[in-house]
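Key result, reporting period 2: structure in, sequence out.
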């Protein structure tokens, strides 16, 4: 399965929440029970690029739903845009589900 393209639009200083689901070829929902989600935002799509935010603590997988919920006090700490991806891990199997840009909209109101 090739990773889907999905860009994050993160508003600095606001809570970010999105839920992702994926389907099998027959249209049925993929059950992620037993899988562990992990994700990061880096300046570039490279493992040695500067880490902007580890998203893993803000991810949960329940059945077919993978939820990313970043609290406002964490999005406040972001200062630039980057690249991200979302992987699911089960033992030695790793599936990259999504990848794309993580665009930051700077906060104006303080």
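The corresponding designed sequence is given below.
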């Amino acid at each position: 399965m090739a990773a889907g393209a999905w860009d994050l639009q993160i508003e600095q200083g606001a809570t970010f929440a999105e839920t992702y689901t994926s389907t099998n070829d027959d249209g049925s929902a993929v059950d992620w029970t037993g899988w562990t989600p992990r994700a990061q935002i880096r300046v570039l799509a490279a493992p040695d690029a500067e880490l902007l935010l580890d998203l893993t603590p803000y991810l949960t997988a329940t059945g077919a739903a993978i939820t990313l919920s970043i609290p406002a006090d964490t999005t406040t700490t972001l200062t630039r845009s980057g690249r991200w991806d979302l992987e699911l891990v089960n033992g030695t199997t790793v599936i990259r589900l999504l990848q794309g840009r993580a665009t930051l909209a700077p906060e104006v109101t303080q």
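DSSP finds one helix and nine strands in the chain. The beta strands are 4-5, 8-11, 16-21, 36-42, 51-54, 59-62, 65-70, 82-90, 93-105. This case is discussed further under Risks and Mitigation.
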